[in-house]
Amino acid sequence: MWEYTDKLKDHFFNPRNVGEIENPDGIGEVGSLACGDALKLTFKLDENGRIKDAKFKTFGCASAIATSSVLTELIKGLTLDEAIKLTNKDIADYLGGLPEQKMHCSVMGREALEAAIENFQGGGKKKHEIEGNVICTCFGVTDKEIERVIRENNLTTVEEVTNYCKAGGGCGGCQGEIEKMIEKLKPDEIKQAPAAAVRRVGKLTNIQKIQLIQQTINEQIRPALRAHGGNVELIDVEGNKVVVAFRGMCAQCTLAELTMKDVVEAKLKEFVSEELFVEEDKESAQQPHSHRE
Fold first, then answer.
1. What is the pTM of this model?
2. Which listed CATH number (3.90.1010.10, 3.40.50.1010, 3.30.565.10, 3.40.980.10) goes with 6-121?
């Protein structure tokens, strides 16, 4: 069950500016019904070049409706130069935050605004074109889009990237490429510090421990498994017990128990804590896995 703020629920149950402006100055259409989310934004300018009115039509979840509603409210009265500076974080912050798995809705809003402004600047003829090479074929996400959400939101894991732009949430075939992009875009000081170097002196808090476990899986364990067509997912952390599920070839491998002890558990003991032990969630490993929202 998602935890929504009161403001988000208000904009979901009572969305503002639903519809489409007749003879709009700008039209922005992003997403697709095939991917589960789509948004059409239209706006009209006044004689001073400010956004006089804005309306939206969206197909999606509660977060998609709420972020679209907020977007139209935020841009009214702004010049296009002011509106183009709006970020997905501004939209999410106005709502008091979004569930991490729904941050892609705020990104979609920002993209629709940019598309509408491009449409106006092109005299109504210019169609929004996404730059870059497609990395995620399941959702049609390019390297430029992934780079942008990583930079603007300081993302550090593939799961976070999926939450913000859906890339990697389909078949998972692009996750290795996304990991490389995350590593490339990391600040130099973080690149130079291996997971072991960020261990705290003394007892880790539960949040610190979970973060360090996830970092170790991303940096030390997952690349080795991917090289053999496998993968591993962190399911839960209960005290010193780390519950994981194998994916891909690892889920079917007869040596999974050996991999869990000699690779997964050994690395977690080395980089996080000697007290950790690992258990496999075999039931989860048998379930179809997808990050789609």
1. 0.61
2. 3.90.1010.10
